[in-house]
Specification:
Blueprint (H helix, E strand, L loop, with lengths): L1 H17 L10 H9 L12 H18 L8 H4 L24 E2 L3 E4 L2 E6 L2 E6 L9 E7 L9 E9 L2 E8 L4 E9 L5 E10 L11 E4 L2 E9 L15 E7 L2 E2 L3 E2 L6 E2 L9 E9 L6 E9 L2 E6 L3 E7 L15 E7 L6 E5 L2 E2 L5 E4 L3 E9 L12 E10 L15 E4 L6 E7 L2 E7 L10 E6 L2 E9 L6 E5 L2 E7 L4 E7 L5 E8 L3 E2 L8 E4 L5 E8 L7 H4 L3 E7 L5 E8 L21 E6 L2 E6 L2 E8 L2 E9 L6
Parallel strand pairs: 15-17
Antiparallel strand pairs: 1-10, 2-3, 3-4, 4-5, 6-7, 7-8, 8-9, 9-12, 10-11, 11-16, 12-13, 12-14, 16-17, 18-19, 19-20, 20-21, 22-24, 23-24, 24-25, 25-26, 27-28, 28-29, 29-30, 31-32, 32-33, 33-34, 35-37, 36-37, 37-38, 38-39, 40-41, 41-42, 42-43
Length: about 625
């Protein structure tokens, strides 16, 4: 717990430091720009050979060592903390609140046929929930998320399921790698460890984004990889992302490159401490783990968004020179990296997205991105600090090219920005909504939501809510905005259209969200219109309480055809659920611990180690069955 808590929370100090310092030693900024230009390509092309890549690395090393003191430069956050050292189950409905249809996201609970599979605090669990007799609602299996004998403490964050194959995703600081544990889910619910692989990388953690996606049996990762790792700061050598397999105990195979140097694109953004922004694809339909990758070189700050056919990657140069001046504004590039065959394309732009929800590939053939003047991408807690002037960028897909053309000023539409606070945004159908929240009591001026249509972003609607904007979600053709005032948590349903408006509101007194990540919310639409939503809540504790103590309840609201909101009730956690689990690894719930679950017409609430089923009768939710799936003696 201490290792990752210190590193992740300690990043705040680094972020504040970065905002005050400029990096560099001798020489002027203009001289540096000129020198970097010599190492920067004018279009996206791959290195033609290993020798060409190695020569480029040596030239960059010589430039850095001749001008700059040894250190981490603009990559304080990354290289200071994370350098490497020595189908039998049928497809079923999704229970994960994903951003894009057809793109599953790594989560803490997944449905696979008659079973739920749950990841928590270094362990993997299966629970049978077959329809019919409630006696079938029982825990089945409990196994460690790591291979037998592995003691190099990994943080296990995400899980995905394809057929009967379970993939557990974690990060190991001890070896500087993303860990992929492969398990088989048997027809009887048993969980069997199959293999464990390691992708050498830096920490993928983000307070909002998820590292893994699953698209039609293909596992997709974005991994940041700092070209000059700790072992090579003082050398003219650079390593590339590699893969290794667990053998036994703490032994792994030799590392083998997963991204050939000839699959790396020469940088079109100059930076003294470049990052290899790497997309890895693994076929889960094959035995073992067959993975391939490709990389683009660029500055550290990045945000990525995944569609069914591509990964969109926004890379900005905010750490190259800080603070910026009029002669050297912060620049950015938007890359499209296809998941199948095809070359990487890009455009040049300015600014930074808030998070992955700032992106939308619209059906009219455009990529739309909400931008702020000051943002550091989605690494660690950077999304919580995004601020400044806002704009909506709209770029036709055909405008992207290997030459990375610059988008014109007419592609940006200025947007009104909240005066302060932590920004939230999300595309809902043809609209984008944004607003702000705060760590304490929200000021009156941020208790509102803005929205505009991406088809005509010149018309912006400003709607008074009476509460802050902590969460924006999709309610079919409508939107849901959730946030606090001085003491209570409010739910507001918004009708979208030419004259958007708040249609209904619901207040839960004394409550705060029990989960801040997008997966904490779920809406199940009804065929007749409307539906039911669920959200974990807490009633005491500070802003970080949900990471250690879970949620007090999962509250369910009925949404009518006309968007009226009414509480159906809640499924609450029991006091007995607070048990000592003798946690060894992954002992902070960075990715949450509570979820509303709608599955096969049934309603469940996951809270810590408890799974509770409820049913609606005469307009009220009643508890039907409760169980703890953690067994101390196992």
């Amino acid at each position: 717990m201490t290792r990752r808590t210190n590193r992740r929370i300690g990043v705040w100090g680094n972020i504040l430091l970065l905002s005050l310092l400029s990096f560099g030693g001798g020489g002027s900024s203009d001289d540096l720009d000129e020198a970097l230009a010599d190492l920067t390509a004018d279009r996206l092309v791959k290195f033609a050979s290993d020798d060409e890549f190695d020569e480029w690395v040596r030239d960059l090393y010589e430039l850095r060592s001749s001008r700059y003191a040894t250190g981490c430069g603009g990559l304080v956050i990354g290289c200071a903390d994370s350098a490497p050292q020595d189908k039998s189950m049928p497809a079923d409905e999704s229970i994960t609140n994903v951003q894009e249809e057809g793109v599953d996201e790594g989560g803490i609970v997944k449905a696979a046929g008659d079973y739920f599979v749950i990841l928590r605090r270094g362990r993997l669990f299966s629970v049978r929930q077959t329809t019919g007799d409630l006696d079938d609602f029982v825990p089945v299996a409990q196994v460690d998320a790591y291979p037998e004998g592995w003691t190099k403490g990994t943080w296990y964050d995400e899980m995905l399921i394809y057929g009967d194959r379970v993939v557990v995703v974690g990060f190991s600081y001890r070896i500087g790698a993303t860990e992929l544990g492969l398990f088989r889910l048997g027809a009887d619910g048993d969980l069997t460890h199959e293999a464990t692989y390691f992708l050498r990388s830096n920490d993928y953690f983000s307070s909002r984004n998820y590292a893994s996606r699953l698209i039609d049996g293909t596992l997709v990762f974005y991994i940041p990889y700092y070209l000059f790792q700790r072992s090579s700061w003082m050398t003219d050598e650079a390593s590339v992302p590699s893969i290794s397999r667990w053998v036994g105990g703490n032994e792994v195979t030799e590392w083998e490159p997963i991204v050939p140097k000839t699959e790396i694109y020469r940088p079109i953004q100059g930076d003294l401490w470049p990052t290899l922004h790497t997309i890895v694809r693994c076929d889960l339909g094959e035995e073992g783990l067959d993975c391939t990758g490709r990389s683009v070189l660029g500055p550290f700050a990045r945000t990525f968004y995944v569609t069914t056919d591509a990964v969109w990657l926004w890379v900005s140069s905010m750490y190259q020179r800080s603070p910026p001046d009029e002669a050297h504004p912060r620049s950015a590039h938007l890359y499209r990296m296809p998941l199948e065959d095809g070359e990487v394309k890009a455009v040049r732009a300015k600014g930074s997205p808030i998070d992955q929800f700032s992106f939308n590939q619209s059906p009219d053939g455009h990529i739309n991105v909400v931008l702020v003047a000051d943002g550091g991408g989605d690494a660690m807690w950077h999304p919580e600090l995004a601020s400044g002037d806002m704009a909506l960028l709209r770029v036709p897909l055909e405008h992207l090219d290997a030459s990375a053309p610059e988008v014109g000023a007419d592609a940006f539409t200025p947007l009104p920005a909240p005066p302060r606070g932590t920004l939230r945004n999300r595309f809902v159908n043809d609209y984008v909504l944004w607003g702000a929240s705060s760590w304490g009591t929200p000021e009156p001026e941020i208790r509102r939501v803005f929205l505009t249509s991406w088809e005509d972003p010149s018309v912006v609607h400003d709607i008074e809510l009476g509460h802050a904007v902590e969460r924006i979600e999709v309610l079919g053709d409508a939107a849901m905005v959730i946030g606090r005032d001085e003491a209570d948590l409010h739910f507001s349903s918004l009708r979208l259209g030419e004259q958007p408006s708040v249609e209904s509101s619901y207040t839960q007194q004394g409550a705060v969200q029990g989960e801040t990540r997008s997966h904490g919310f779920f809406f199940r639409p009804s065929p007749e219109g409307g539906g039911i939503l669920g959200l974990p809540l807490r009633y005491e504790g500070g802003n970080w309480s949900h990471l250690l103590y879970g949620s007090a309840e999962v509250r369910f609201l009925e949404v009518s055809n006309d968007l009226a909101l009414r509480s159906l009730g809640a499924l609450a956690a029991s006091e007995e659920a607070q048990i000592d689990d003798n946690c060894k690894y992954s002992c902070v719930d960075w990715y949450g611990n509570s979820r509303p679950i709608f599955y096969r017409g049934r309603i469940f609430a996951l809270m810590g180690y408890e799974l509770v089923e409820g049913a609606v009768s005469e307009g009220e939710l009643a508890e039907m069955e409760r169980m703890s799936f953690f067994t101390p003696e196992r």
